[in-house]
């Protein structure tokens, strides 16, 4: 289900997910830092990366808990003022992880919650994205990966347009042509 | 046909849009006698002094740079006409006034290269800037109304450069909305009723006519001079096809 060539999907697979083991597992004690033996007990609570949690879930070895970034507390903050919540701190793959988790957990309200969050934060991105130039603004550090891609798409096209409007030569000089040759002589002896 | 500046995103850069705009026909008054020039795109001329003739913008600019002609500004580039357009743009918050599809690029080329042929050049320049700002603000206001699964957005009378600026943002935003508003994501209507009520009430969507239908990528028939930004279900390669179609239809 994770795309093999997509770097975001690969990084998304590393997100820690809290799971509860439904069966005892022998020989995998390293998954559970609290385990004294080399086994994971039944109903032990362990943090696993998403890719592993997903595979184990498909084999009905674990049940997945909803991560804290979709908790009731976060939802209340989002409802209060969606644009001010630092979602990147909670999970840079907030939306993507939510979409992947939805079929795996019982709590189906994540879907509408994601849509509500995106819709509210989209306004904020929209009204700032085409007007900013130069340095990236402060609020962009709160955006998740998907939101910052959206912001960057708007910003770069506006910057490109402004650059074109100001003018200049249509032919661009290759960067290598402007470089001055270094005056120093090569120090290493010439090889064969 | 897609832009060459970024083969992965298949978007046009501003100079590429300008290049496309150079095929627009303008009227020039040559001051030389010259035989007809035979180009792949057509034959132009012959040229006689003080006899007006029609040539593509690139040829007009090339002749102008050599001092061989004067360019007659197109009829929409006069102060009275532009003032009317600006007033109309300000009065109708949901509609765009009909202007040439390449008005941003043409005005830049003409203002840069033929400044002595345009009467009231400062006025014309600032009016065109104002018109562009007002129209862009309208586009942004319109984008605010997107709040759900929208398959396509129709923007009548939007010009090439304007749609080119918003295209990356709009396509991405539509993809995100498409993903988050899909039936798989919104499974239980009874639990989403109150949320849905919060989300939906964003005012009327008169600017954007949504085109529905699931296999809609290429089913949207673009009328000439209407700029479309189309959302698509399978991202990636299909997005390239869509952008291509958009530009082909518009040209």
UniProtKB/TrEMBL annotation, chain A:
Matching InterPro entries: GINS_A, GINS_bundle-like_dom_sf, GINS_Psf3, GINS_Psf3_sf, PSF3_N
Keyword Nucleus: yes
Residue ranges occupied by any DNA replication complex GINS protein PSF3 N-terminal domain in the UniProt entry: 5-57
Ranges of residues in domain GINS subunit: 70-164
Domain of life according to the entry: Eukaryota
Localization per record: Nucleus
Key words, A-Z: DNA replication, Nucleus
Pfam families: PSF3_N, Sld5
Signal peptide coordinates: none
Record-stated family: Belongs to the GINS3/PSF3 family.
Annotated protein name in UniProt: DNA replication complex GINS protein PSF3
Species of the source: Platanthera guangdongensis
Automatic annotation (TrEMBL), chain B:
InterPro entries found in the cross-reference section: GINS_A, GINS_bundle-like_dom_sf, GINS_Psf2, PSF2_N
Domain GINS subunit as annotated: residue spans: 76-173
Keywords, alphabetical: DNA replication, Nucleus
Intracellular or extracellular location(s): Nucleus
Any one Pfam family match given in the protein's UniProt record, by short name: Sld5
Domain DNA replication complex GINS protein PSF2 N-terminal, residue spans: 14-71
Subunit-level organization: Component of the GINS complex.
Protein name per UniProt: DNA replication complex GINS protein PSF2
């Amino acid at each position: 289900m994770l795309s093999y060539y997509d770097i975001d999907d690969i990084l998304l697979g590393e997100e820690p997910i809290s799971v509860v083991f439904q069966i005892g597992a022998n020989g995998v004690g390293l998954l559970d830092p609290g385990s004294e033996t080399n086994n994971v007990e039944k109903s032990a609570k362990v943090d696993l990366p998403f890719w592993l949690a997903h595979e184990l879930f498909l084999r009905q070895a674990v049940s997945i808990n909803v991560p804290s970034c979709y908790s009731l507390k976060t939802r209340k903050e989002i409802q209060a003022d969606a644009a001010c919540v630092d979602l990147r701190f909670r999970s840079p793959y907030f939306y993507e992880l939510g979409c992947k988790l939805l079929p795996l957990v019982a709590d189906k309200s994540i879907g509408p919650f994601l849509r509500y969050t995106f819709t509210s934060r989209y306004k904020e991105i929209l009204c700032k994205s085409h007007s900013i130039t130069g340095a990236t603004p402060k609020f962009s550090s709160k955006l998740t990966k998907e939101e910052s891609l959206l912001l960057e798409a708007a910003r770069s096209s506006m910057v490109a347009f402004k650059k074109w409007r100001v003018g200049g030569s249509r032919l661009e000089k290759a960067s290598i042509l402007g470089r001055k040759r270094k005056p120093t002589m090569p120090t290493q002896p010439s090889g064969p | 046909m897609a832009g060459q500046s970024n083969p992965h995103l298949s978007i046009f850069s501003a100079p590429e849009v300008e290049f496309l705009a150079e095929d627009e026909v303008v009227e020039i008054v040559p001051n030389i006698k010259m035989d007809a020039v035979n180009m792949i795109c057509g034959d132009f001329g012959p040229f006689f002094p003080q006899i007006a003739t029609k040539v593509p913008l690139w040829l007009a600019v090339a002749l102008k740079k050599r001092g061989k002609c004067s360019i007659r500004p197109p009829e929409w580039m006069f102060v009275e006409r532009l003032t009317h357009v600006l007033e109309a743009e300000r009065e109708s918050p949901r509609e765009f006034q009909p202007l040439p599809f390449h008005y941003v690029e043409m005005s830049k080329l003409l203002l840069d290269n033929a400044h002595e042929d345009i009467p009231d050049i400062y006025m014309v320049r600032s009016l065109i800037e104002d018109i562009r700002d007002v129209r862009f603000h309208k586009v942004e206001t319109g984008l605010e109304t997107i709040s759900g699964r929208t398959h396509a957005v129709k923007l009548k009378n939007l010009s090439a450069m304007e749609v080119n600026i918003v295209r990356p943002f709009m396509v991405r935003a539509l993809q995100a909305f498409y993903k988050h508003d899909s039936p798989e994501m919104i499974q239980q209507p009874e639990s989403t009723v109150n949320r849905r009520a919060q989300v939906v009430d964003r005012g009327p969507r008169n600017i954007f006519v949504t085109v529905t239908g699931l296999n809609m990528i290429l089913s949207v028939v673009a009328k000439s001079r209407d700029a479309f930004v189309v959302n698509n279900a399978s991202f990636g390669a299909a997005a390239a096809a869509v952008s291509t179609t958009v530009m082909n239809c518009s040209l």
